[in-house]
Amino acid sequence: MKIKRILSLVLSLVLVLSLSGCRNRNEHEDPEQPPEISAEDELVLYHNSTALSPMLMALTEEYSAATGKKISAKLAGNDFFGEMKSNSAAIYVIDTHSDLSGWHSGGMFSDFLAETGLSSLVSKIPAGLQFNQSGIGSYGIPLVLEGYGYIFDREMVAALFGAENSEKLIDDLRTCSFTEFEGFVAAVDSWISAPSAAKIRIGENEYTFAAEKTGKAQILTGVFSLNNESTRAMEHLLSYALAAKFQSRYDVMSAPEETVSGMEKILSAYAEVLDFHTSHIAGAEGSIGRGEEFTGGDYNYSTSVDLLTRGSALFYPGGTSDTADFEKSSTGFSKNLDIIPMKLPLSDEEITASGMTAEKLQSSIVIGSRYYIAINPSASETDSAAARDFVDWIFSNEAGKTAYSGAFGTVPFNFEYITGSGESGSSPETESSVQPESESSSSPESRDSSGTADENSSEGESTAPEQNPDMMGPMIPSHKIENSLMAAVAEYYSAGNWIPDMSFALPADFADKVLGEGLSDFWGMETWAESDRKNFVTTIIDGWKQRLNKDNSAVG
């Protein structure tokens, strides 16, 4: 008995010393050392986009390394909905081009505002980006924001008007009216045919063309790079027409027949711009118009990309999602890209959407999100909590924001600039919008979408100062944006100079069956009489009305 008692004491002493040693090692661990990753209770982020796969994999790997909480991204099979329903997946990325009404009726969307503990974060999503389409609740968080407008190479503008004048000209193009923009395009087309030091006035400023073709303008053949196989650019333009009449996507989806019929004047303006675009197309050797040369030529999507990247076209009506294809066409091309708004010839009297004006419409780009993060309300509380932690990390944590920006290189929904102290004499205008974040900068998440401070900052950081254009100091982005095109989109978004992408709120087959078929006829017509324009508008309105009250992927 005595021997057993001694052995017991010895073992107890060994155990105490062992635990003490572990505790001492933990106390002296490198605070920068990432926590060990546990494979237990792994959270899987499902999606059905091959394009998103590398970005989501990079993001989830960063999260696992930074937090020690295991998460992975998985590409689902063809039956995305069925797979998520059968395995009670907790979190997934939803493509808004899917049948979202089926997902909603199937009980696959949590209301972030009411149930998930992310209500403070989600409440900052602007109304134009809320994922509900019924005006009630918030069923997803926008993952990737995209901007749409006229994309161009800043070096091309400098070649046309001189580097010393290009910045001021671009600023004028951002806000000019359709009439001024129309005159600018006509002047560029004339210069392409016969270069000279001609002058053009936009607003209060006068600009002089280069006397001859130099630099990137040497092989410029036309103004707009268009393709005849896709309605995509024309859908983005349609968002401007819809924004002149409707306040939200839900208003578009629930529009009664009489409201659709009342779109005639606005859609006539839309048709006028289509006519304008297709009268100034950059061809292989010179400017072309509609007709056999366009429809019979090799003007597909790849060609339209190449026409911009090789310097044959000035403007590319499209979106930031095309940037990867610009890079494939010409490595390094995207480093100097910028974007200006598309224009519609509408007056304040013709614009009926509450709060919308002609000035707002002509100075705003379209911004939308095709992909949203959603959480399954049927998931276990453990999985739901893990999903919430992941989402909060992406948009609220400093390391998470860095990982997000590194993975996607795009603008998050809670992006905004905050004014830093900076060096004496610096100002927002002299600092690049893509400067790295100051480590001492205050948290941008502590501000709501209108720029006011949120007293309940989740990270306990000091709130950002009110933005004041007279304050000195650099504009520090809340997420690092290294792509020049996305940096430009970030400026529009942060300043509120954007309108929602409303085109996908139209009936599901509207783009293909109505707009697509109407454009197919339009492409082949060399000239477009007033009667042709009216027929086109009638086709759009009638096709829309025929699809009212049909399933168009409504949610809520």
What would your notes on this structure say?
By secondary structure, the protein is an alpha/beta fold. 41% of the residues lie in helices and 14% in strands. It contains 21 helices and 17 strands. Strands 5, 8, 11, 12, 13 and 17 form a six-stranded mixed β-sheet that branches. A hairpin with a 4-residue loop joins strand 9 (281-282) and strand 10 (287-288). Helix 2 runs antiparallel to helix 18 (398-408) and helix 17 crosses helix 18 (398-408). The longest helix is centred in the N-terminal third of the chain and has 26 residues, at 2-27. The chain is globular, with a radius of gyration of 27 Å. The N and C termini lie far apart (75 Å).
